[in-house]
Amino acid sequence: MNIIIVCYPTYGGSGVLATELGHKLAQLGHKIHFVAYKKPVRLKLTDDKVLFHKVNVPFYPLFNFQPYELALSSKIVEISESNPIDLIHVHYAIPHAYAAFMAKEMLKTKNINLPIVTTLHGTDITLVGKHPFYRRAVKFSIQNSDIVTSVSQSLKQDTIDFFKIDKEIEVIPNFIDVNRFKLKNENCKQNNRIIISHVSNFRPVKNIRTLLNILLKINNENLFFNMIGEGPELDLAQDFVKQNNINNIKFHGNSDEIEEILCSTDIFLLPSKRESFGLSALEAMASKCALVTSNRGGLPELNIENETGFLVDVNDEDKYVEKITDLISDKSKLEKFKHESFKRAQLFDIELIVPLYNELYYKLLK
Questions:
Q1: Does residue 3 come out as left (phi exceeding 0), alpha (psi in the -120 to 50 range) or beta?
Q2: CA-wise closest residue to 295 among 316, 311, 271
Q3: pTM of the complete model beyond 0.85
Q4: Hey, which of 20, 24, 42, 49 would disulfide with 354, CB 3.0 to 4.6 Å?
Q5: Radius of gyration of the chain measured on its C-alpha atoms
Q6: SS3 category, 147
């Protein structure tokens, strides 16, 4: 098959998942055409089965905001006119599903009928999609996709409840390459201190202020903290650390060495206000980390209470502290959780999940 994949090219979970999916589909023999405004961060153009098409948006002073959706839909049409495309798979409803529908309608005038698969990832539904300015367009895009998938049962239910749609939504969870993490685990440097790590895009939804208060309350010389990622509240975090003299911490920024950092981590902390799946938590599980996370969204589908870690009410700082302290003081429990995390991560291996997308594509094209 020739498949167009549309995604955001950033370090966010939707772009990472879309990129890894495309690479694996190429290994299965499909030709993948990635479409975005710049090359996705994890995209490797190493063979002729993976192509990248840049969406150029010309600047016109007339527009306060340049019309990316028009440029994207035009690029999809251009690719489809010069390649035997079988389907379009868009990740993130806004604006990708809407642009794909526009492209589909344009292609119909040329007797080309391309089905659309839309994968919902989270804030396209739970945050941006709920805004009254976007709500109708998001609902329209979902209803007019040929197949809709969601990365968690929680997100599926949120979508149905909020948009009141009767569209069938198939849950296909996020995935990781377990073997890649396994190799890192086997060659990982060990530490004398307990290492606690956090990975996010440092947006308010990640509950960074609560995270910082937790770090301050548990801080001692036997711990070390890793903060991985960049975003609007990164400066706030760095200022907080400086003002409170937390010296046993490192800010890594957006890193291509996530596996190297996580493999030496003992506890992964994610107190998100909303988390539709929690790809960073899954990567931590594959790195043999115990989890201490909020109980929001899809996290309870991933992090099993008192088995792979602990689930805590989102802003209960004292409970986070209690659970982390419990793991630090009880090494046998910590090791048990780390073992069970890695064991559970294998259920989300790329070799098990990508075939679900593959089957879905063939079912759609029958």
A1: beta
A2: 311
A3: yes
A4: 24
A5: 21
A6: strand
Sheet with 223-228: list strands edge to edge. Answer: 249-253, 223-228, 194-199, 267-270, 290-294, 309-312
Yes or no: say if 68 and 55 are a contact pair by the CB < 8 Å rule.
Answer: yes
How many residues appear in the chain?
366
Would you state the CATH architecture of domain 2-175+350-365? Answer: 3-Layer(aba) Sandwich (3.40)
pLDDT tens profile 39-83: 998 899 988 999 999 999 877 676 666 788 899 999 999 999 999
CATH topology for the 178-348 domain:
Rossmann fold (3.40.50)
Q: Do β-strands 249-253 and 169-171 pair in parallel, antiparallel, or remain unpaired?
A: unpaired
Tokens of 47: 């063979």
Identical fold between 2-175+350-365 and 178-348: yes
Residue pair 287/259 in contact (Cβ under 8 Å)? The answer is yes
Concatenate the DSSP letters of all residues of 295-363 into one string: S-TTHHHHS-BTTTEEEE-TT-HHHHHHHHHHHHH-HHHHHHHHHHHHHHHGGGBHHHHHHHHHHHHHH
